[in-house]
Amino acid sequence: MIILSDIKEKASKGISRGLTYGFEELDNITGGAKESHLTFLVASPKRYKSWIAIKAFIERRREGSIPIFIP
User: Fold this and answer.
1) Rounded to an integer, what distance in angstroms lies between the CA atom of residue 19 and that of residue 37?
2) Are 28 and 12 in contact (CB under 8 A)?
3) CA-atom Rg of the chain in angstroms
4) pLDDT single digits (tens) 42-57
5) Which of 2, 4, 14, 30 minimizes the number of CB atoms within 10 Å of its CB?
6) Looking at residue 45, what is its pLDDT?
7) Are 22 and 59 in contact (CB under 8 A)?
8) 34 vs 2, 44, 65, CA distance in Å?
9) How far apart are the two ends of the chain, measured CA to CA in Å?
10) How far apart are the C-alpha atoms of 50 and 28, rounded to whole Å?
11) Checking phi first, is residue 12 left (phi over 0); if not, alpha (psi -120 to 50) or beta?
12) Beta bridge partners of 19
């Protein structure tokens, strides 16, 4: 079972730190976006998923990555 506090602890230590999603709290929880990994953003309706995904796309592009956005 994956426990959120364990993920936060590993991410805060810099273990498996990836590129930023553009949101510090999301980066701290997930450890950032890893190269060659597929990321899913899932939430109930009207929770700004598209906005978050577009912001993450822009941040990845600024860092020199070539992200793919599939709405």
Assistant:
1) 11
2) yes
3) 12
4) 889 999 888 988 998 9
5) 2
6) 92
7) yes
8) 18, 25, 11
9) 30
10) 20
11) alpha
12) 33
- pLDDT given at position 30: 81
**Rounded Cα distance, 22 and 30, in Å:** 12
Q: Which two tokens stand for residue 61?
A: 């592009």
Q: What is the rounded CA–CA span in Å between residue 71 and residue 58? A: 15
Q: 43-64 burial, b for 16+ CB within 10 Å, e for fewer?
A: eeeeeeeeebbeebbebbeeee
Global pTM reads 0.64
pLDDT tens, position by position, 18-35: 888 888 888 888 888 887
pLDDT band at 12 (very low <50, low <70, confident <90, very high): low
